[in-house]
Amino acid sequence: MEILCERENLNRESELILLDNNATTAVDPYVIDYICCTMKKLAGNPSSIHEAGKQASKYINYARQSILKNLGGSDTGFIIFTSGATESNNLIILGLSEAFSNDPDSCFVTTPIEHPSVYKSFEKIKQKKLHKVKYLKVEKKTGRIDIDNLITIINNEKVVFVSVNYANHEIGTIQDIGKIAKICHEKGAFLHIDATQAVGKIPIDIKRLEIDYLSLSAHKFFGPKGIGALYISYNAPKPEPIMFGGDQEFFFRPGTHNVFGILGMAMALNLLVPNLPTIIKEEQNLKDYLLYKIEKLRQENLIPQYSINGDITFSLPGTISISFLNTDASDLVLFMSSNGICISKGSACKTQSKKASNVLKAIKLTPDEAEGTIRIGLSPKNTLQHIDKFITILERYYNLKSDSFKNK
After folding, report:
1. Is 107 considered catalytic here?
2. φ and ψ at 63, to 5 degrees?
């Protein structure tokens, strides 16, 4: 434990520039203060009936209602607290698969560009032959869902459940959730949204969009790690539990509540939602500046040719997926890291793999494009100076690799 507290290590971490805010975000200092304050005040187990337990339970109920309000779902459904969106996704997908177990002809639908916690859950359903599984087509390069393909599948199959991400974790593409929800509901299908990358980054209104289920993780919006939630509409079928123990979280998710994680998540969302218009504008400005500087390097032949992945119009303001030709993305990421800049080559859940992710395959990148793809995740805590340093290091990297791309 001593190494975690060494001053030189803490100072080193504070000098790092985090341009990987899709993987995680730094906990907001106000959230840290709030968690520390409540830790000193609350000692009880929320499931206990004595006064200390009641106090903790009261705070959790406040957090539950606060999160629902910030998501626009105060009067349409309820929140289940989980360890994060991975658990939330598993619970709703596998739990509903059990709930519909008496109907093997029913069809579960998703896309090939989902987070591993979604597509691997669908693969499990497929392997066990519990239900039919269909994958929606997505557009090349942009990753936007083919709406006509969705209509065709829903008209020809007994679709009961559709799961799509609101905003993609690798390329930032935002889906037309309102239209997708309308198509699903017209045929009696229920819609799950993995909003892990959307919450705290773009406005979300569960009631207006008529979302049946929604997953989220606090650490994506400056909250603590290890805590998340699953929203369930009052009017939607309920999942069967996939974990067993106590009767916490309405019997859906057993285990002692992560009280301070829950409170920190609610506070982080409270801080972000009122300021979303300003945050979106700031992130978009940083994104535009970064893309301008990269293009300037290309025009001066200081970096190789590149392409931008994802939908240009419908995209998260702070997410950039770039494919550089003749580039080893892992090598570039490590070079950036050695110079104090943190980026990634895709989802943090796949970062150790040498293979192209399911997302990059689905949007039909060439092997060379996939191998040279990096992801940059901006946040309102980043600055123009951070971008300038990234550009400087990028130019330095390709100066060392100039023979690999010039005159090609």
Report:
1. no
2. -60, -40
